[in-house]
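thread from #wetlab-drylab

HS: before we spend reagent money on co-crystallization trials with iron/sulfur cluster, can we at least see a predicted complex? here's what I'd submit
DV: go for it
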Amino acid sequence: MRIAICGTDDKAFKIKSILDRLAYHNIVVGMFIGPDAVGLCHDNIPIIPENELLNRDYSKEIDGFIISPEHYGLTRLSIYKKLKASVYANKKIYLPDFETLYNEGNVKDLSIEKILVPYEDSSQLFYLEVHAADHCNLNCKGCMHFSSLVKEKVFPDFNRLSEDVHQLRKFIKHIDIIRILGGEPLLNPELDRYITLLREAYPYANINIVTNGLLVANMSQSLCETIRNNEVHVHVSLYPPVKNKKEKIEAFLKDNGITFQISDCINTFTSTYQSKPFVDKTYAKEHCEIFCNNLRDGKISCCPQVIYTHYYNECFGTTYPVEDGMIDIYKIGSARELHQSLDKPVSLCSYCDRSTCFDWSITKRLNAEWLSKEECL
Ligand code: SF4
Ligand code: SF4
């Protein structure tokens, strides 16, 4: 069998070396797939850019794909979707067992079944987010999590979250990226408990706190220590009112030894909905680039809109449907069932409309702030 490994990072090359050790299975790595690595190769194996792979037909040379856990990050799901929509739709796609890959030296029963885990059966999720607060101290117009419509303090129940994470861990053993956000997560005085809970459950996850930055310089020393000790990364989404605090935020995070990233200033937002459903009910989901699985109160959904649209409905008396997008993690029997459920379009997708861009501003709490242009006329 000839395999292409999607990825050109250390983990991709490690998959190749494990396959070499299991050479008696006659699996040959024919190529690596990189983002733009024209003309390069590793171990005399060519690295083909993703675009070229998708625009040319290599299907006679390749029987299946292994998607490396690193390098592609969140886009692991994106490459999976692209392959499934291409000439490679019938090829097998595998995700290697995560612990095997990370602990290869200690694993006695290195087996081909642990390297070639079909994507559909993999106990891995590419992405998960949890709120540490539903409300926010910035209140942007058109916030996709509807935090600017949350007028009171709303913190998720930590014990409930803890139960949910342990339940999810029964069938999802690894998550690539976990983001703790909101609303504004730094408003939650128990944020350190969220961090330790998620780190214990998912030791190899890339855990991020996503903040608007307003409270970064007020973070306590004990919170900074928890962030450092648990190798959590801080991502600051920079909005216009916080732009002039950028240097102060940067200095604080550097002084406290916290790894971080500050986005460019976000000056525009996009609409969320239209009021009537599209005739083509699957169109929005098929073109959706939002793979932001969100966990809340025993349910997981394929995007935060499903979980938090109730704030919009309550505020404006609308009835955007959300129920069929909530997947009860206590009723899910396997990773396969979860993957299938998360991939399906839900009723809410047929209202989703990101076609209108508008300048960032503070919300006036008008329903039209979330609607596409036609709706605002
Ligand atoms: S800062 Fe983020 S969470 Fe807060 S209102 Fe703005 S977009 Fe929403
Ligand atoms: S509602 Fe559907 S189409 Fe819209 S962002 Fe969520 S998953 Fe994507």
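DV: The chain is about 30% helix and 20% strand.
HS: ok that's useful, forwarding to the group
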